[in-house]
Each structure stands twice: as C-alpha cells, then as structure tokens.
Amino acid sequence: MSNVDPADPVFRVNHLVKQFNGLRAVNDVSTEIHQGEAVFVLGPSGSGKSTFLRCLNLLEEPGSGEIYFKGGLINRPKADINKFRQQVGMVFQHFNLFPHLTILENITIAPVKTGRSSRAEATAKADALLKRIGLYDKRDVYPQQLSGGQKQRIAIVRALVMNPDVILFDEPTSALDPEMVGEVLALMKDLAQEGMTMVVVTHEIGFAREVASRVMFMDAGRVVEEGTPADVIDNPKNPRLQEFFSKVL
Fold first, then answer.
1. How far apart are CA 12 and CA 33, in angstroms?
2. SS3 sequence, 139-202?
3. What are the φ/ψ torsions at residue 23 (nearest 5 degrees)?
4. Bridge-based pairing state of the strands 9-20 and 64-69
5. Are 205 and 233 in contact (CB under 8 A)?
6. How many CB atoms within 10 Å of residue 232?
7. Distance between alpha carbon 134 and the CA centroid of its chain, in Å?
8. Which residues make beta-bridge pairs with 29?
9. Angle separating helix axes 103-113 and 148-160, nearest 10 degrees
10. φ/ψ bin of 48: left (φ > 0), alpha (ψ from -120 to 50), beta (otherwise)
C-alpha cells in the first residue's frame, strides 16, 4: 500500500501549536506516527483533537512547530501541498461528497485529475472497492440516494482509490444514525488489520480499545497520556483520564 521506509515515521510532529483568538487549541504537541499504526485520538469535546488532525494535512496552518511527512518538512514556504495531500487521505464527519456527481465520478475524479491514475485504472480500482463494500450497484447513483453509512463508506473508498500512505479520519461516525455506525467501523477495522496507517479522531471508545495500536488522549490542546489501549483506556494514570473514562465507559 505504501512506499514509506518502515524505519522512518510517516509523520513526525514537533512542538505543534495552533491558536484561535489567543486560545491554544493545540498546545505544544509532539508525536510520531509510524507505518501500519492505527493511532486513535481521544478526549473530551473541545480538547483540540480535530484541530490537531486538520493541522496534520494543513487544512489548518499551524502557528508554530514542525510537521514532517516521510522525512520532509511540509509546513514551510513553497512546500508542494497538493503533492503531499495526494498521499494523505482524509475522511470527514459529513462525507463531503460532490452532490452533482455520481458515486463513481466522486471516487475517480481525484486520481484522474491529479494524474495518479488513468480513467480506466481509477474506474477499475473504484469498481473493485465498491464490490468489496457491497455498493457496486450504487456506482451510477447520486449521493442523495444513499444512507449516511453508505455515504461514509464511499468517502473511505474515495480516499483509498488514491492509494494513500495514511488516512486521517475526523469523527467519521459522529454524524451517523447508530444503526449505520457498525458498517463504517467494520470497514475501518478491516483497513487497520490490513496495515493501513490511520489516524482516527473518534468518540467510539470501545472501537478504539479493539482496533487502536496506540491511543493519544488530548485535553485542553495537550496530549496528556498516550500508549496502548490497555494502558490509556483501561489503566489511565492521569486523573483527568480517570475522570473522563469513569463517565463514558
């Protein structure tokens, strides 16, 4: 799936800071994300999780700090942001599908426009992925004809068709009806088990415990604890985590 040297982190983040109106939404965060990891970012609402994720692919420009991707500094003047983003998939809370394009067109537009695939190659890969998730019969319909769970699985396929090195998930199930959450989580679990590098912002604590290789817990813009799910979720050391998990588990 990837051409990253396994010895090097896919992302290396040094002292990342992002402020809004003087408030530090991300406050001095440093971490590494390695190939094949499924890193889950947990924490209360307003803790900076989504802002941190959006900084990773420069949807938010950091105020200070460094973000390295495959060894290269990306938050610098004249960095090729478009080339970088072709290698980093993003799955949003509200799907962000183009309503005027069919499902197949939604999936294939990016790899064709960026030159990563020919139209025939992109279509063949899209069809294979649609068959995998049981939505091949929806390839010629429009997004408004799909359920929320179907739209989100299409959004994940749209990211996969670019053959990315990593996929970022920003609360991918929070806009879904509860009965649709499972089909999206099942696809994400399959990807994690296949070794896709993933960074997932979520409130699905049970899913994080089951799938994450590492958990980062954020509060007030800082990473206050990180480690395996067993360490962070089941045996938290920090009183803030203990309080949080006592309320949600």
1. 7
2. CCCCHHHCCHHHHHHHHHHHHHCCCCCEEEEECCCCCCCHHHHHHHHHHHHHHHHCCCEEEEEC
3. -95, 130
4. antiparallel
5. yes
6. 25
7. 22
8. 16
9. 20
10. left
Question: Residue 219 in contact with residue 45, Cβ under 8 Å?
Answer: no
**Dihedrals φ, ψ of 205, to 5°?**
-65, -45
Do the strands 23-34 and 9-20 form a parallel or antiparallel pair, or are they unpaired? Answer: antiparallel
- Taking all residues of the chain, what is their mean pLDDT, rounded to a whole number? 93
Q: Which amino acid is at 6?
A: P
Q: How far apart are CA 236 and CA 240, in angstroms?
A: 9
**Which of 4-24 are b and which e, b meaning 16 or more Cβ less than 10 Å from the residue's Cβ?**
beeeebbbbbeebbbeeeeeb
**CA gap 152, 92 in Å, rounded:** 8
What pTM was estimated for this model as a whole?
0.93
First-to-final CA distance of the chain:
35
Strand 197-201 and strand 166-170: the pairing is: parallel
Give 177-193 pLDDT, tens digit per residue: 888 899 999 999 999 99
CA distance 92 to 219: 21
CB within 8 Å of 77: residues ≥ 6 apart: none
Q: What is the pLDDT of residues 125-135, one digit of tens each?
A: 999 999 999 99
Which token pair is 145?
């004809």
Report which DSSP code applies to 203.
S
**What one-letter code names the amino acid at 195?**
G
Distance of alpha carbon 152 from alpha carbon 171, whole angstroms: 11
Side-chain half-sphere CA neighbours of 116 within 13 A: 21
